[in-house]
Amino acid sequence: MEPNAIDAGACLLRRLSPDDRPVLVEAFADPEIRRWLPTRLPDLDAASAYLALRAREWARAERYSWALADPATDELLGEVALKNLDWTGRTARLECWTLPRARGRGLAVAAVGAATRFGFDELGLLEIGYGHGERNTASARVARKCGFRLSHRLPDEVVIDGVPETIVVWTVTRLATMA
Ligand SMILES: CC(C)(COP(=O)(O)OP(=O)(O)OC[C@H]1O[C@@H](n2cnc3c(N)ncnc32)[C@H](O)[C@@H]1OP(=O)(O)O)[C@@H](O)C(=O)NCCC(=O)NCCS
Questions:
Q1: What domains are there in the chain, each with its CATH number?
Q2: Mutate to test the pocket of ligand 1, among 66, 109, 132 (most ligand atoms within 8 A of CB)
């Protein structure tokens, strides 16, 4: 599968590039992204290793990760991924973040919608999940706006910022998008 660009309207989904490294370091220093995602990128070397990992995962069909870029300037504004690809069950999980300065203008909804369509139409997936901490209200809004249905809560809490957090899982099926 080639990492072709996808026009998502509000943003362009394209492959991550070495030019994105300074913005990646900036993004993973953001308190909200650090709160909800485990990745830590303290410097440009860490960002290079991150790009290499994402390229390896794409080549091995383990995870498809796109940069969300400004359609006019190509500036990196976020990232969306289909991860945990299970080719037997034909399922995957979504992950997304956007830079603080790019939030609230529909980028995540556009990107998650485009990645979901790619998963169903190009990869032949049958179900896509989206998990997040229960207090992550922005994520819940994105999931609902993208047609996901609340599925279940994971039985074991995780500790985030020293506080126990329940992970909620939303799902959307290919059938539901065809209805
Ligand atoms: C969650 C996240 C990706 C949303 O990105 P975004 O680009 O701001 O999302 P959108 O602009 O598409 O907004 C989608 C909806 O969420 C709502 N929303 C955004 N931030 C919100 C907040 N802090 N609280 C409640 N709702 C919020 C928006 O209002 C919008 O709903 P509306 O159109 O009904 O008003 C972004 O806040 C983020 O990167 N958070 C940190 C990382 C993270 O939590 N990732 C998700 C875990 S996988």
A1: 6-178 (3.40.630.30)
A2: 109
Residues 78-102: pLDDT tens digits?
A: 999 999 999 999 999 999 999 999 9
- Taking the centre of ligand 1 as the mean of its atom positions, its distance from the CA of residue 161, in whole angstroms, is 20
Please give the distance, rounded to the nearest whole angstrom, from the Cα atom of residue 48 to the centre of ligand 1. Answer: 27
Assessment of whether the complete model's pTM goes beyond 0.85: yes
Given a cut of 60, whether residue 1 has pLDDT beyond it is no
Q: Which two tokens stand for residue 169?
A: 């899982």
Is any ligand 1 atom within 6 A of the Cβ of residue 138?
A: yes
Confidence check: pLDDT of 149 > 90: yes
> 51 C-alpha to center of ligand 1: Å?
24
CA of 138 to the centre of ligand 1 (A): 4
Tell me phi and psi for residue 79, to 5 degrees: -150, 145
Alpha helices (H) in 30-178, listed in sequence order: 31-36, 44-59, 107-121, 137-145, 174-178
45 CB-contact burial (10 Å; exposed 0-12 / middle 13-18 / buried 19+):
exposed
Q: Which atom of ligand 1 is nearest to the CA of 111?
A: 12
